[in-house]
Specification:
Layout: H1 10-14, H2 25-31, H3 36-43, H4 48-51, H5 56-60, H6 62-71, H7 83-100
């Protein structure tokens, strides 16, 4: 991202897209307001985007690790989910979006 945005308060930081974890409705409700460390142990059972928060994902999924490397996607485990983790996740989502919505520019004559 170009430029530097001013720091956000903690509650606003958490509400950024980098703080987004996509879970099925019932699962999300069952975790409620549990601390991140407690939720993290269950994330390894969820979809790959959520699993990627847990370090075991990188040990037990060689195809995922290879795909992330080949596509240049900056996946990494996040044992904690603090400001720097949310910002790293924000960057990951940005790269994923840029890959999805990358359009070839028309060739100039």
């Amino acid at each position: 991202m170009e430029g530097t945005a001013p720091p956000l308060p903690q509650n606003e930081q958490r509400n950024r897209i980098g703080g987004l974890v996509l879970l099925p409705r019932g699962t999300n409700q069952s975790y409620s307001d549990a601390p991140y460390a407690k939720k993290l142990q269950h994330y390894v059972k969820e979809n790959l985007l959520v699993k990627s928060l847990h370090e075991l994902t990188y040990q037990n999924n060689p195809n995922f690790v290879k795909m992330a490397q080949e596509l240049g996607l900056p996946f990494q485990a996040h044992p904690e989910f603090k400001k720097a983790d949310i910002e790293a996740r924000q960057q990951l989502y940005q790269v994923i979006c840029e890959r999805i919505w990358a359009f070839d520019k028309p060739e100039e004559n």
